[in-house]
Amino acid sequence: MATRRWKLLGTVIVNLIWMSSWAPAQSLERFTFAEPHLGTIVEITLYAPEDTVANDAAKAAFRRVKELDQIFSDYKNDSETMRLCESAGSGRAVKVSPELFQVLRQSLEVSEKSDGAFDVTVGPLVQLWRRARKLKILPNNDELLAAKGLVGWELVKLDEATQSVELKRQGMRLDFGGIAKGFIAQSVSQLLREKGHKKTLVAVAGDIVAGDAPPETSGWKVGVAPLDRPNGTVSRLLLLTNCAISTSGDAFQFVEINGVRYSHIVNPHTGLGLTERSSVTVLAGDGTTADALATAICVLGPQKGLKLIEGRDRVEALIVHATDDGPRVSESRSFQSYESK
Questions:
Q1: What burial letters (b/e) apply to 164-181, b meaning 16+ CB within 10 Å?
Q2: Would you call 192 helix, strand, or coil by DSSP?
Q3: Which SS3 state, helix, strand or coil, does residue 30 take?
C-alpha cells in the first residue's frame, strides 16, 4: 500500500510516493528526520534495516549540516565566511577550508558564464535589501551606489596551489544564499552514501538531492507546483534518482513597496529585488550546480537562462514566469525526459 507525504519547499512541492519498503534481500524501513537549520527545515529520508542504524546516520548528517553552516553563514559573525570578509582589502590571501574554496570556485565559474547574474559578492546589496524589505522602504541612490561599488566577482582571487582566497576591496561581503544550501544537501547525501545509505533524499528548503531509488520503485517522485497556485495541485511530476533539483522564485519571499512587488532575490546589476514574478526549477547532477543555476536563471530570465545551460551535461530547466495573459512556461529540450510516466 502506498503512503503519501507532502512537503512545501519554496515553489516546489515534494511528493514522495512510497511503494513497499521490503526489499527481497533485506528488510528495510523508511525513516524521516527533520531539524531546524540554516533558517529553514532540513529533512532527511533514508532506508535502513533498523532504527538504531538510521538514528546514527541522521545524527551524523545533522552534525555535518551544523559544520557547514558554521562555514557559510553570513548571519554568524564567527563563521569562516565572515572571518574571510574581515580580511577584505587587506592585500593578503587567507587559507580557507576545502569546502569554502570549492564553493567559491564553482561560484566564480557560474558568475563568469552568467555575466555576473550570479555573484556571491552581492552581500552588501543583500544587506541593503534585507533592511528595505523589513522597513518597506527602497534604498536611496547613494546607498545603492556605495553597495554596488563593493560587488564584483572579479574582485575574488583564488590560489589553487595554496587554497587561499583574497577579497580585493575593503568592505566586500560574501553571500552564499544562492548556492550553499545546494552544496550542503549534496554533502549530506554524500556522507550518507559513504555510511552505506544509498536510498536517500535530502531536502534543504527548495534544494533537494535524491540518491538511489526507494525499494521496488524507479525513483523519487517530485511534484512542481504551479506559479499562480504555489500551494495547489502539482503541475508536473518528475521521477528522480542520483541527481539534484533546485527551485528559486518569489512565491513566498517578496515585499510590496509603493505598489511594486519585489522578490527576495537581488539582481547584482541593479541592486534591487527582481520585479518579474517567476519560478525556476533546475535539474542537475549535483546540488551545488542546481542551486547556483536556478538563482542565475531567475536573474537572467527565460531566453538568456536557457542559453546559459545549453550544452551542459545532465542539466535541465523549467521556467515559469508571469505575464498579463497568465503563466508562461519555457523549458530545456530534455526536461520532459525526467517526467514520471
A1: bbbbeeeebbbbbbbbbb
A2: helix
A3: strand
